[in-house]
């Protein structure tokens, strides 16, 4: 991609985050999504949370691990405010995601150890997605460009 395609810019002149970025953010904030779904389905919400998170501490740690993803999703839409702290956090977003994904990976390994390393599809798919997102974070030039983008008019 030598020339910049204008379709990749949003209305403020910033590079739009890719679909893979949004999938990674959704994957990292999956506990928040489950909590939201449980809150929407009032009558079955507590049953859903007990089914997916039998130990409350797993839900709480998932919520904490999902915070960086939610923060970066918010920053993706707030970059046009052009505040220095927003730009600083956004530029370090790739490493924030890497750190959060590393913590999530460690928690997944601890969960596997808790289940005595028995194979279960949800654990296997979560690990596969984690590896894929690690590779995407480290290899994607587009993602590096998105996090390095300071907009079309940095002097605002």
Q: What would you note in describing this structure?
A:
Helix 2 packs antiparallel against helix 3, helix 4 packs antiparallel against helix 6 (93-114) and helix 6 runs antiparallel to helix 7 (121-139). It is globular and about 45 Å long. The chain is mainly α and 156 residues long. The longest helix is centred in the middle third of the chain and has 23 residues, at 56-78. The chain contains eight helices and no strands. Helices cover 70% and strands 0% of the residues. The relative contact order is 0.15. The two termini are 27 Å apart. The protein has helices at 19-28, 30-40, 45-52, 56-78, 84-91, 93-114, 121-139, 141-148.
Describe the main β-sheet briefly. none
What's the order of the H and E elements?
HHHHHHHH
Instruction: Classify the secondary structure makeup into a structural class.
Output: mainly alpha
Q: Strand fraction band?
A: under 5%
DSSP helix fraction: 55-70%
Rg from alpha-carbon coordinates: 18 Å
pLDDT averaged over residues: 83
Which regions contain 5 or more consecutive residues with pLDDT less than 50? 152-156
Q: Report the span from N to C terminus.
A: 27 Å
H/I helix tally = 8
- Bulk shape: globular
The oligomeric state is single chain
Tell me how many strands there are: 0
Task: Please give a handful of descriptors for the protein shown.
0% strand, 156 residues, 8 helices, mainly alpha
């Amino acid at each position: 991609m030598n020339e910049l395609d204008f379709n990749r810019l949003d209305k403020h002149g910033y590079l739009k985050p890719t679909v893979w970025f949004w999938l990674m953010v959704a994957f990292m904030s999956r506990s928040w999504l489950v909590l939201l779904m449980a809150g929407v389905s009032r009558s079955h919400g507590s049953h859903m949370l007990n089914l997916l998170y039998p130990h409350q501490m797993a839900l709480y740690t998932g919520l904490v691990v999902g915070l960086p993803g939610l923060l970066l999703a918010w920053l993706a839409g707030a970059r046009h405010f052009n505040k220095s702290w927003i730009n600083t956090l956004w530029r370090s977003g790739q490493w924030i995601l890497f750190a959060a994904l590393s913590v999530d990976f460690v928690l997944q390994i601890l969960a596997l150890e808790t289940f005595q390393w028995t194979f279960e599809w949800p654990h296997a798919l979560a690990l596969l997605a984690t590896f894929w997102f690690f590779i995407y974070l480290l290899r994607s030039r587009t993602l590096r460009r998105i996090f390095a983008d300071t907009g079309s008019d940095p002097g605002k």
